[in-house]
């Protein structure tokens, strides 16, 4: 993880800081659909990408697309 000191050395704007990880992170969140627990995959900006049945499959799908999965509770 990058420290605040390291970030300030780079003179990142709020917009730049907000876009860090957008291209290489996806979020996995458990959701209920018609009474069934599924796992939604969202882009880092919140855009819904897909829904799959198994959590492990969600993480594998994210990695298959060369992104890092992150769990959302």
Commentary on this structure:
This protein has 3 helices and 4 strands. The protein is elongated, with a radius of gyration of 15 Å. The two termini are 21 Å apart. The chain has a domain of 51 residues. With 73 residues, the protein is of the alpha+beta class. 30% of the residues lie in helices and 37% in strands. The chain has a 4-stranded mixed beta sheet with strand order 3-2-1-4.
User: How many runs of DSSP E, i.e. beta strands?
Assistant: 4
What overall geometry do the principal axes of the alpha carbons give?
elongated
Strand order of the largest sheet: 3-2-1-4
Element order, helices and strands? HHEEEHE
Mean pLDDT: 82
**Strand portion:** 35-45%
Low-confidence stretches: none
In whole angstroms, the N-to-C terminal distance is 21 Å
What does this entry show, briefly?
The chain has 73 residues and is an alpha+beta fold. Helices cover 30% and strands 37% of the residues.
Topology:
Layout lengths: L3 H6 L4 H6 L5 E9 L2 E8 L4 E5 L2 H10 L3 E5 L1
Parallel strand pairs: 1-4
Antiparallel strand pairs: 1-2, 2-3
Looking at this protein, list some descriptive labels:
73 residues, alpha+beta
């Amino acid at each position: 993880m990058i420290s605040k000191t390291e970030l300030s050395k780079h003179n990142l704007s709020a917009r730049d800081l907000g876009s860090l990880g957008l291209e290489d992170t996806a979020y996995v969140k458990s959701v209920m659909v018609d009474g069934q627990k599924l796992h939604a995959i969202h882009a880092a900006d919140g855009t819904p990408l897909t829904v799959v049945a198994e959590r492990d499959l969600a993480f594998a799908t994210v990695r298959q697309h060369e992104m890092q999965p992150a769990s959302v509770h």
